[in-house]
Amino acid sequence: MGSQEVIDWQGKNVTVAGLGVSGIPAAKVLHGLGAVVTVVNDGDDERSRAQAAELEALGVTVRLGDGATLPEGTELIVTAPGWKPDKPLFAAAAEASVPVWGDVELAWRLRGRDGREPAPWLAVTGTNGKTTTVQMLASILEAAGLRTAAVGNIGVSLLDAVLGEETYDVLAVELSSYQLHWAPSLRAHSAAVLNLAPDHLDWHGSMEAYAADKGRIYEGNRVACVYNVADKATEDLVREADVEEGCRAIGFTLGTPGPSQLGVVEGILVDRAFVEDRHKNAQELAEVSDVHPPAPHNIANALAAAALARAFGVPAKAVRDGLRAFRPDAHRIAHVADVDQVAYIDDSKATNTHAAEASLAAYESIVWIAGGLAKGATFDELVAKSAKRLRGVVLIGADRALIGEALARHAPEVPVVDLDRTDTGAMLAAVREAARLAGPGDTVLLAPACASMDMFANYNKRGDAFAEAVRELGAASA
Q: pTM of this prediction?
């Protein structure tokens, strides 16, 4: 992985920005390494105070309700990935020439501290499909007999993976655009950008800045930069990346692959990248039916995972076995039940327009439940592309009017129910309205195209509420 600077943490003044899921472990790790740690946090609620008390008992200083001021003597900031780059704290850091790292950068810098050879990283980013692809990749690597874990945004925390007692041959790493923004020295063995669509623009400030942060995943790659043939922006990021000599651009496509690509031929996933004489030969990897569910965007995820595994030298049989063994997480195009010949599908994980578009494309006749927090997104393109599939729409959540306006412009004939309520019974009401609009053979699809936090703790809770409402509906019609 190349040599890296060894940092003496003893007595180093480090400020950790944010308590949260990455801030607390980072503070504990840094304190354990001998750093003088101060945690700053915007919030000062009951939960924050409880977390602060736990850290203060260890000897960490915590400042609640003030995340804007740079503590005196700070030599490094380690930030939670969600903190926006335009926060005053970071402006003060720039002025004082204080570096800012995220939790991923910290984990990257701490690899190999115990003298062990650090495990290479196979890294995945993209607007949608990251978690599924990383889990598929981990399943394939395990099928090849490698010690691995799905880490990063999911599963094992990166700091635990790097510093824990468990040793790994290779890590399957999910990285968000936020994390990549704060990870300047990350250099993966191989990496994939699955797709690029407008998302988190309120955080990044522009589509260009968002794409540039995603593209950082390719910097310094050693073996393969995996891109989506159907999404030219991902290939452009490969062209712009500064990689190690000999690193290859590897495309994945749902069509017939060219040389240096993985693709699909007559229901078979094939590799024309990691084979002898790729201009003439192809290696069968798996059948489309080995992928669960075999929806088009999920086949693309499988091809990306296979490309990264093959870049690491995994045999074809392990790709097939790993894909067969994999089962997706809840709330990702999960079939809840059939009630009165109508299928109810939970894709609460579709928290942006790009994910919702992939979900809507998987069904022919849909009653769509949509809405929530738009995160700066617009919905005209999504509605225009999906209009012919829509039998009806039920709108929920804070920014539902934005979707309603797009429907009025691009699908004026589709009946729309505007549900103006946010109480605990709102999802049951939405499912009942959807059932009223649906006929035999239709699919009621929860693919909100929005974040959930206006009404629910997270997308999991939103999906659970949908499934519970569907079960109530089924019991009532039984």
A: 0.76
